[in-house]
Amino acid sequence: MAASKNDKSKSGWISHGQVAENRRARFDYEIGETIEAGIVLTGTEVKSLRLGKAQIAESYASPERGELWLINSHIPEYLQANRFNHEEKRPRKLLVSKKQLAKLDQEVARAGNTIVPLKLFFNDQGKAKLLIGVGKGKKNYDKRATARDRDWNRDKARIMKEGGRG
């Protein structure tokens, strides 16, 4: 049996695989180094993630008080939870080593750098992980160049598929 796109079982739960992706991050930022960080979640947040409902498009990570925090990510409420549900946009602690945190803090101190979440996923052990990258904001002309290159690569692939006949 072939694995489906999100590795969902018949019940609709994601056991491992991608939950959310920030597709706009690589367009808006020039991503340098990436780090896989753990994320501290409550039980209802994990259940909501397993349903594949999360948004990290407008979020960012920030080193504060000697810890790394994920700000402005949206994990919707788990509807089957009663009164023990979670806050949808609360800051969530990210788990990285002290060495990685110091390096990230140093990178953010440089002008124009920010910590951007790229992908939220469950690893093979079933633990929620967040792929973060240090990004430097692109200027408008850089974004136009990125779009132009992407369009050219798409056209080139189409031409090659047709066998080079124009």
UniProtKB/TrEMBL annotation:
The lineage's top-level taxon is Bacteria
Q: Where in the cell is it found?
A: Cytoplasm
User: What residue intervals traverse the membrane?
Assistant: none
Looking up InterPro entries in the UniProt record yields: SmpB (IPR023620), SsrA-bd_prot (IPR000037), SsrA-bd_prot_CS (IPR020081)
UniProt entry tagged with the keyword RNA-binding:
yes
Q: Which UniProt keywords apply?
A: Cytoplasm, RNA-binding
Q: Cite the residue spans of the region called Disordered.
A: 143-166
Q: Which Gene Ontology terms cover its molecular function?
A: RNA binding
Q: Which Pfam families match?
A: SmpB
Its predominant location is cytoplasm
CC per GO annotation: cytosol
Stretches of the chain forming a coiled coil according to its record? none
Q: Which GO terms describe its biological process?
A: trans-translation; trans-translation-dependent protein tagging
What family is this? Belongs to the SmpB family.
Describe the function of this protein. Required for rescue of stalled ribosomes mediated by trans-translation. Binds to transfer-messenger RNA (tmRNA), required for stable association of tmRNA with ribosomes. tmRNA and SmpB together mimic tRNA shape, replacing the anticodon stem-loop with SmpB. tmRNA is encoded by the ssrA gene; the 2 termini fold to resemble tRNA(Ala) and it encodes a 'tag peptide', a short internal open reading frame. During trans-translation Ala-aminoacylated tmRNA acts like a tRNA, entering the A-site of stalled ribosomes, displacing the stalled mRNA.
Q: What is this protein called?
A: SsrA-binding protein
Q: Which gene encodes it?
A: smpB
